[in-house]
Amino acid sequence: NPLLIVVCMAQGFRPDGAVLSWTEDSTTIAGPEVHTGPSQRQSDGTFIQSSVLKLSPERWSSGRSYTCHLTHPALTSPLRESVSVGQCS
């Protein structure tokens, strides 16, 4: 079955300890469709980390909004970035 891949990447942060998570509309997605890799230290001492969300074409085309959330000790409030089928061509 074809899958649609949505990738969220955080880079240039320090210290280590970012947490990436996903929501579908406002519901947390927790399951095998989410894969968050380990953070990796870069040569400049900052870190990079990515999380992948795998969706069926039917789920993606339902029009729901998918949001990646980033929390980190250096942030006063989480960062988030959203995408939906209507924003993509």
Description of the molecule:
It comes from Pygocentrus nattereri (Red-bellied piranha). Pfam families: C1-set. This is Ig-like domain-containing protein. Keywords: Immunoglobulin domain. The protein is mainly beta and 89 residues long. Helix content is 4%, strand content 48%. The chain is built from one helix and eight strands. The strands form two sheets. Strands 1, 4, 5 and 6 form a four-stranded antiparallel sheet that branches. A hairpin with a 5-residue loop joins strand 5 and strand 6. The protein is elongated and about 40 Å long. The relative contact order is 0.31. The mean pLDDT is 95.
What form results from the Cα inertia axes? elongated
Cα-atom radius of gyration = 14 Å
Unreliable residue runs: none
- What structural class do helix, strand and pairing data support? mainly beta
Distance between the termini: 21 Å
Keywords: Immunoglobulin domain
InterPro entries: Ig-like_dom, Ig-like_dom_sf, Ig-like_fold, Ig_C1-set, Immune_Resp_Modulators
Protein name: Ig-like domain-containing protein
Domain Ig-like: 1-84
